[in-house]
Amino acid sequence: MDLSLIIMQLLSGIALGAVLVITALGLTIVFGMLGVVNFAHGALFMIGAYAGLYLASLTGSFWWGLLLAPILIGAFGMLIEFVLIRRLYGRSIDDPLLLTFGLSYILVEGVRIVFGSDGIPFPTPPQLIGVVDLGIGFFPRYRLFVIALVAVVLLVLWLTLEKTRVGLIVRAGARDPTIMQVLGVDIGRVWLAIFGLGVGLAALGGVLAGPMRSVNPEMGSLVLAEAFVVTVIGGLGSIVGAVVAGLMVGISISMVALFAPEMATIVMFALMAVVLLIRPQGLFGVRGRTA
Amino acid sequence: MTHPSSGEAVAKPSSSGLGWLLEQRVLLSIAVLAVLPWLLPSQALAVNVLIYGVVVMGYNLLFGYTGLLSFGQAAFFGAGAYFTGIAIGRYGVPWFAAVPIAVLLSTCLAAAIGIVSTRTRGIYFSMVTLALAQLVYYVALQASSFTGGENGLRGFTVDRISLFGFQVNFLDPVNKYYVLMAFAALAMWFQSRILNSPFGAVIEAIRENEQRARACGYDVERSKLIVFMLSGAISSLGGCMLALHLSIVPLDILHYQTSGMIVMMVLLGGARSFFGPFVGAASFLILEDVISLWTPHWQIFVGAIFVLFVLFLPKGIWGTLLDTLRIGKARP
């Protein structure tokens, strides 16, 4: 087995990991700020893929789908927070989890009613078809684009959270919502925005994954398990953890697929079990909060 | 380890007559299950209520009584079914011996998953149990020479036997129902014994306040692991019953949607109550039956009803009923 093949597979793993990072990030941000685990996250990922597909065919351009689907589904997420999740703050931590689980049933079945149960192919945008010569081998252009886009999104998110006033309010609100309220911040609006952001990231993950996986109503359930594994490994609520663990999982899946294809789906769970035995709170998790 | 006075957990006659009757939870539950095939529109539905009732009852030990929201109970339900089917079909074990073997093996699986997952708490625990149960799903999918992979486990038959002079014939629906009911009765008796024991008081203490339970000197981690195993054992018995009932094991049984269904059933019926799981299983299955008569998209309604229950009726049908009658608070 030559080195260039391994490097190409590594790159594939990073592309796979990039989608996982974006998806897990939405889950982890919502938990970190709101203390809510969104069990409908996978279903919203799936809806994001469908929305991207629909908007792309409506406007005739993948780019509009990529831009509008996360915004639209993010707004839908805000509606969910406003109508349903908001009622459950202050109740048992299990309640939002159970509610979003029920919601995922509604969303998945809703998509089945509108689009049918069969998978739909998601065409790769014409500008991104084909491969790029990297000197050591050819790599799909689309996957390179996914890696680059995710890197940009991460950078923007990081700058917003660390360098702006909005980011300051969000971070402070996560630590002590009561004090923020005393200081005159409408914390309800912050939570609304955060939930919308988390759902928007799920939708973005869905659109990006579209051309790489088949788009079907069940695709969310696998993604939910993957996003859980990533957040558990990284540490629930930790943004750095989601990035590191997402790439770790993506790379391990793709590397194991090279040597033992039948173990590829199993390896991430094994990775999670090992991490939990050593650090129950995850790699970047804070002890005491969840473990 | 010191135990609290077990008196408060042991069934004792309360002042109200209805309350006393409800204390006889095992006998009362068996009585209801005995007439169930004649109460429900079909025998097939009654068998399913029996099977899912046992699975959900086992889950309720974990969720309702210990407060651990696991999303991986399908792993044990499925393990019980697969181990039973494999023992009968591949190794020619008679079915009455396959059941205890399957329960034992499933309990070992519960121990393995429990060791990893009970190290975590709260929401983390839910996510970890879901992920580990998905691991079991993928293992069953990959080990197709044993499990039949995507097609599920086929090709085993449950033999007709004669037991203590009774003919046990799984081709006769009534006969089958009452044989399976005997398993359910055993599970109910076992569960009731656990709940009435000092250990039952410890797990409820953990649910109410984990730190206080730890401060009282209880080994919280070990208790959680034990309750996880007991819960897995009881739910796996439901899986054994399903394998005997269907003579096949579908792969779907291991999927996390099944875990979700178990969670839905316990919430619909009412966690923390002894008979709630059976009420939950029955209402879920009836709901599914009725709605699927006029639309294939029954899941959208089940989801909506579940959301409404979480919002407005978190104690479920049976739990709310008991509360309304004020007999759920019989204990001081």
From TrEMBL, chain A:
Keyword set, alphabetical order: Amino-acid transport, Cell membrane, Membrane, Transmembrane, Transmembrane helix, Transport
A single BP term in Gene Ontology: amino acid transport
Broad class of where this protein is predominantly found: membrane
TM segment ranges: 6-29, 36-56, 62-85, 97-115, 142-161, 190-210, 222-249, 256-278
Top-rank taxon, per record: Bacteria
Family statement: Belongs to the binding-protein-dependent transport system permease family. LivHM subfamily.
Pfam families on file: BPD_transp_2
Record-given protein name: Branched-chain amino acid ABC transporter permease
Taxonomic source organism: Bradyrhizobium arachidis
Cellular component terms (Gene Ontology): plasma membrane
CDD domains cross-referenced by the UniProt entry: TM_PBP1_LivH_like
Location in or out of the cell: Cell membrane
Any one GO molecular function term: transmembrane transporter activity
TrEMBL record, chain B:
Localization: Cell membrane
Annotated Pfam families: BPD_transp_2 (PF02653)
InterPro entries attached to this UniProt entry: ABC_transp_permease (IPR001851), LivM-like (IPR043428)
TM stretches of this protein: 26-55, 62-83, 95-116, 123-141, 177-204, 225-249, 261-286, 298-318
Membrane disposition: Multi-pass membrane protein
Gene Ontology terms, MF aspect: branched-chain amino acid transmembrane transporter activity
Keyword set, alphabetical order: Cell membrane, Membrane, Transmembrane, Transmembrane helix
Annotated Gene Ontology cellular component terms: plasma membrane
PANTHER family given in the database record: ABC TRANSPORTER ATP-BINDING PROTEIN, HIGH-AFFINITY BRANCHED-CHAIN AMINO ACID TRANSPORT SYSTEM PERMEASE
Protein name: Branched-chain amino acid ABC transporter permease
Native organism: Bradyrhizobium arachidis
